[in-house]
Amino acid sequence: MSVDEAPPRTAPAAAGAARGRPAAGAGARWRRALSFRNIGALYVWVLLIVVFSIWAPDTFPQWDTVRQVLNGNAVTALVALSLVIPLSAGVFDLSIGYALGLCNVLLAYLVVKAGLDVGVSLALTLLAALAIGVVNAVVVVVFRIDSFIGTLATGSLLLAGITLVSGNSQIVGSELTGGFFSDIANAQIGGISLSVLYMLVVAVAIWFVLEHTVTGRWLYASGFNADAARLAGIPVRRLRFIGLIVSAAVAGGVAGIAITSQIGSGSTTVGPPYLLNAFAAAFLGATQLRQGRFNAWGTLIAVLMLGTGTAGLGLAGAPVWAPSVFTGVVLLAALAVTRAERNAALG
Questions:
Q1: 3-state SS track over the chain
Q2: pLDDT tens track for 60-71
Q3: Does residue 103 belong to any structural domain of this protein?
Q4: What's the rounded Cα separation, in Å, for the pair 249 and 222?
Q5: What is residue 344's predicted lDDT score, i.e. its pLDDT?
Q6: Domain with 185 in it: what CATH number?
Q7: Quick check: 222 and 89 in contact, CB under 8 A?
Q8: Who's near 53: CB < 8 A, 6+ residues apart?
Q9: Which of 17, 20, 93, 142 lies closest to 279, judged by CA?
Q10: Closest CA to 75 of 174, 193, 158, 177
Q11: What is the mean pLDDT of residues 76-87?
Q12: Is residue 28 one of the residues assigned to a domain?
């Protein structure tokens, strides 16, 4: 029998084969999507909810806790999201906490001390955040100083700026505690504050850029192997320059404005505490959904998981140092997993 005369499959067998292959492929895709390696933080999040519901049954399993986690971690999420673009491009920004702090006291100073219109003050604060990003980018990209050291140094300069603008004292005034200014972040829709909306808008924008544009693919290529990316014609230095500007704009501009509206003052200590939580969320987020890649939705999952753990420890009456230990352990675990996955991806 020739090849052309090969016996035909029976109709049931052909239909079964046609159905079997896609079914098996779909099953494999679902197994990968739901694997602990892909969405482990979601499973840990559910476990935390169960544990704290048992540990603090009278206070934790309440709608108020959901609102506390969302509203109380929106600024943390914004700061963490600010890291996604530069980290994807392969650079660190350790100045984000100080950028937030400087924009906080600057906005309060402009509104209270300088007596400027709120709209003008907001615009000047956003411009200041962009200027911080440009300085970081010049230090790291133009002067070729390691981003870890360079942004740590600029962070020290920003800390000096915080002291200079604030006079090393808290800036308070009725202009910051009522009306339009307070509503910028505190106005609520169904119990959820507008700061959560800003968080979602920034997350969608970053997701779209990274997942649906050529620039996003270039950013990932620059972060995984900068030398190979340069040889392929990708403008690595330009991407890193832009990434550092975006980082400062989101952390200093958007998050700085939101936190000033939330607390109704300019505080000399408000910014730096966000640094550890932001990096913990960004690196933990890189192990979720897009393993080994920094991404917006994984970062949000990580922020809310960390926020749930912190809120649960507080409601359960844990020692005051427990949330810091929890965050530090999560950061170490996330760094270890991210490094292992990147090494595996590079062969």
A1: CCHHHCCCCCHHHHHHHHHHHHHHHHHHHHHHHCCHHHHHHHHHHHHHHHHHHHHCCCCCCCHHHHHHHHHHCHHHHHHHHHHHHHHHHCCCCCCHHHHHHHHHHHHHHHHHHCCCCHHHHHHHHHHHHHHHHHHHHHHHHHCCCCHHHHHHHHHHHHHHHHHHHHCCCCECCHHHCCHHHHHHHHCEECCEEHHHHHHHHHHHHHHHHHHHCHHHHHHHHHHHCHHHHHHCCCCHHHHHHHHHHHHHHHHHHHHHHHHHHHHCCECCCCCCCHHHHHHHHHHHHCCCCCCCCCCHHHHHHHHHHHHHHHHHHHHCCCCCCHHHHHHHHHHHHHHHHHHHHHHHHCC
A2: 999 999 999 999
A3: yes
A4: 21
A5: 66
A6: 1.10.3470
A7: yes
A8: 60, 61
A9: 93
A10: 193
A11: 97
A12: no
The amino acid occupying position 103 is: C
Which two three-digit tokens encode residue 169?
Answer: 């004292």
**C-alpha distance from residue 114 to each of 110, 124, 142, 200 (Å):** 5, 12, 35, 32
Residue 337, token pair as written in the block: 């997993």
Q: Diameter of the chain by CA atoms?
A: 95
Residue 107 placed within a domain: yes
171, β-bridge pairs: 266
Per-residue model confidence as pLDDT tens digits over 8-20: 444 444 444 444 4
From 88, 32, 45, 30, select the one nearest 296 (Cα to Cα): 88
**Bridge partners, residue 266, by sequence:** 171
pLDDT at 304 over 50: yes
Number of domains in the chain: 1
Crossing angle for the helix pair 11-33 and 36-55, nearest 10 degrees? 60
Both tokens assigned to 23:
């079914």
Which residue in this structure is represented by tokens 């309440």? 62
Measured CA distances, 26 to 17, 21, 42, 271 (Å) = 14, 9, 22, 46
Residue 224, in any domain of the structure: yes
Q: What are phi and psi of 148, to 5 degrees?
A: -60, -45
Give the pLDDT band of residue 5 (cuts 50, 70, 90): very low
Distance CA 217, CA 15 (A): 39
What range defines the domain where residue 116 resides?
39-345
Place of tokens 């922020």: 303
Angle subtended at Cα 91 by Cα 87 and Cα 95, rounded to the nearest 5 degrees: 95
Strand partners, 189: 192
